Amino acid sequence: MTLSPDRVAAASSDWVWVPDSASAVETADYLLVRFPDWFEHPASLVRFEPTGDPAAALDEAAAKARELGADRLVVWVRAGAEPGLESLLVARRGVVDEVLDILALDLASATPELGAPEHLGLRWTTEAEVVRAAEEVSVQVFGGAVPPEDELAAMLERDRRTVATGGGGIVVAYADDRPLGFGGVGVVDDVARLWGGAVLEEARGRGVYRAVLAERLRYALAQGAAMALVKGRVATSGPILRRAGFAPYGQERSYLLPL
């Protein structure tokens, strides 16, 4: 069964992530997030919807990012953004950083049989060593650095609470006690937001992503989710998700601007 585009668009628009360890500046025009130093990029406009002159709003946000110590800024162009926004970003020397497919799956009608390999072990981030493993895989795939010990401890405390109460968490796939991939899920109302799916390059093509996806969908169904939503990289996770039954509902692109 195909989900309505309006429902997917609304769920996608509502999905804005600001880490507990980040700082944010929000106006009517934008939401600017200054990430901690261990993230790959220091700052991002996770929402940019100018009510007036887009160039003036962008210049204001860039100045705020510089005040917060950022030397570059990621700007997300969401599906349905105003025409001309990408031309403005290019004029500001922005280059495309990521292209994501917006993909959704109706969990109320059927759950795909993904055929996850049996040799993989799956563990949730309710143990300190699994939290660290997820971050180490993330660094190797996405960049950045492993957070400091106090942040890892805060992540552990948070995930123990949210996994147990149905809010979501992170699952890590292991082979012979070695972490190979991970993926996160957050359940909000009846939507399972799937994020951060990553597999080490040398382990790709061995069913790791499918195993992590299957476990997250199992968890989402147990919490009563009716829709799974993911923003997958076009060149990597996107094709796997489409084969698993996820349908496309547009794209989002990010531009990296030097400050």
Known CATH architecture of the largest domain: 3-Layer(aba) Sandwich
Task: Report helical residue fraction.
Answer: 25-40%
Total DSSP helices: 7
Instruction: Describe the largest sheet.
Output: 11 strands, mixed
Average pLDDT across residues? 93
CATH topology of the largest domain: Aminopeptidase
CATH level 1 class label of the largest domain: Alpha Beta
Report the count of strand segments: 11
Terminal residue distance: 45 Å
Describe this structure in words.
- This protein is α+β, with helices and mostly antiparallel strands and about 260 residues long.
- It has two domains: about 5-100; about 110-225, Gcn5-related N-acetyltransferase (GNAT) (Aminopeptidase), CATH 3.40.630.30.
- It is about 35% helix and about 30% strand.
- It contains seven helices and eleven strands.
- The chain has helices at about 5-15, 55-65, 85-90, 130-140, 150-165, 210-220, 235-245; strands spanning about 25, 30-35, 45-50, 70-75, 95-105, 120-125, 170-175, 180-190, 190-200, 225-235, 245-259.
- An eleven-stranded mixed beta sheet has the order 1-2-3-4-11-5-10-9-8-7-6, with helices on both faces.
- Strand 1 and strand 2 form a beta hairpin.
- The model has no long low-confidence stretch (mean pLDDT about 95).
